[in-house]
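re: that complex we talked abt at group meeting.

here r the seqs, copy pasted straight from the sheet so there may be weird spacing, ignore it
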Amino acid sequence: MADAMSTLTPPSAQARTAAAERLAGLATPAGALGRLGELGVWLAAVQGQCPPLVPQNVRAVIFAGDHGVAAHGVSAYPAAVTPAMVRTFAAGRAGVSALAHTHDVHVRVLDIAVDDDLEGIDPDVQRFKIRRSSEPLHLTDALTMAETQAALEAGARIAAEEIAAGAQLLISGDMGIGNTTPATALIAMSLGMPAVEVTGRGTGIDDAAWEHKKDLIQQGLDRVNARADQDGELRPVEILAALGGADLAAAVGFMVAAARAGVPVLLDGVIAVACAVMADRIEPGAAAWFAAGHRSTEPAQSLALDKLGLEPLLDLGMRLGEGSGAVAAVPVVRSAAALLRDVALLSELAI
Amino acid sequence: MADAMSTLTPPSAQARTAAAERLAGLATPAGALGRLGELGVWLAAVQGQCPPLVPQNVRAVIFAGDHGVAAHGVSAYPAAVTPAMVRTFAAGRAGVSALAHTHDVHVRVLDIAVDDDLEGIDPDVQRFKIRRSSEPLHLTDALTMAETQAALEAGARIAAEEIAAGAQLLISGDMGIGNTTPATALIAMSLGMPAVEVTGRGTGIDDAAWEHKKDLIQQGLDRVNARADQDGELRPVEILAALGGADLAAAVGFMVAAARAGVPVLLDGVIAVACAVMADRIEPGAAAWFAAGHRSTEPAQSLALDKLGLEPLLDLGMRLGEGSGAVAAVPVVRSAAALLRDVALLSELAI
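got the structure back, here u go
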């Protein structure tokens, strides 16, 4: 996938221009819609039409996976929470389930790399399973290149299925104890920043565990940088293998495929944004198809959004993961589309 | 109304406690829901039940009115826009209409003080009309005390009608060229701040008009302060008569009545927040029934929200009025209720 010839086309400049003109002609004071005006223009561009449709068929996929590094004290929770939460998603009782039900968003949970057999679960949940967990990224590569490629391709097939189901907007969610560690490592590596400047507390670790988490992430960065010094700069897919995980690689493949297919993606927290950074490195320009749903409390997420040139729609101090922040932001996207589509034009009013 | 014996009861402490306990027991990391967790607890308290219902019957009332001060160069738009926009609301083609349709919010527009006969409009729109426009507040009192009382009582009757229609959450919207001037004056007077520190650009005036607007607001403040020096401190209703307008007074009456009836109100921008400040002065404790929908670009709105102890849910740079920021925030309120209501408890998971 990563080596394939790029098939990316940018969002429609023509629709963007038409939308900016329409926005200026609405029966509202200039600029009065604030960010919703800009978001409406982006929607027109990614949909290639003005006015944009209000996206009704919004589809979230939760990429679940465990991480070898989680056994080394980087999380407040044991890895057994991951399969328990996969069952909670399947039962529709998780945070993202409640939000998705409220805002009419379709949710699908997939076991990409959960360190459990999940006996008795709907077999569809495991159709794209790559492996159990990953190797501890501070000691060795998290994945082989073959596993990474397989995960990227799985993500692309998952995106294709969701698009075939009519997705007008896609969301990538995550579940996996320890997953802020690989996500933070990928962002630190991509931004060229040390672990100490980007690492957050994930689900809520204490000061000692936080220092330890920074150390492990820095070990991973040092390990990869040492290889780069010896062999030359690593390709993005090699970085993903070294510091990522199969669930993250699948989400990256999902985002690259969405951008190539011209379907917009609404980003969630630090996991999704790390994957977006990698997707944009694998397929330069992919980020033009992404919008940021919410600002998480993880410093790496804000830093990576700045790099991508994206500003979040919501800032509610959420740090739940699961795609929850993006699902919570779906109504904001619909608001923006509805305003640009349905508000009268000044030229229609008799003043 | 203002002199009536208080009938306010605070939101339920029992439901608040139960909700805080439920929040702590959800199958999410502690604090991971951020502001949505706190908002869910507030919803439980104002509904008097835990878990809270997801508010489906949300009703917005747009209080339309003109302002005498608008003839003195404080707005970028002529007063003829007010009746044109009332017709646009009635036709369902305004900004708030598009948002309300998208998020299933009921909208009702009422001509409280539009400086136009609005010939041919549905007579229900004018059932609560108090007068045409108001007196220029920098020169003289905007309203008589009798008009102010009539507007407060009209607002209370309107709230009663909306509550009888099943409102689970109320929104007060506004339309009126020049209305940020009385709203800013009311906030400045309540906060004891000079006009220069609180006055914004409304719909987008240039620097010269902005300076002029500050001057007129300060003239109004000086006029009222001079009276207070002579006759003693003015009652909140007297300040509303001096610096408000019939549309604002009706919105104040609406909020006081909602709080007394135990129905929560989601606040919009500077007009609604100015009315909320006055409602809380007329009926101390009313603000416990209010939440802030969005942060407007008007400095007076943020300063007044601080005074009320409220933090907005959205911060999207909107300055449209109409109740639009509050309607855009309705899905956030629904998200909060759904999370506290529908997410599994940790005790239900088998980990």
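couple things i noticed - Chain B has a mean pLDDT of 96. Residues 5 and 283 of chain B are 10 Å apart (CA to CA).
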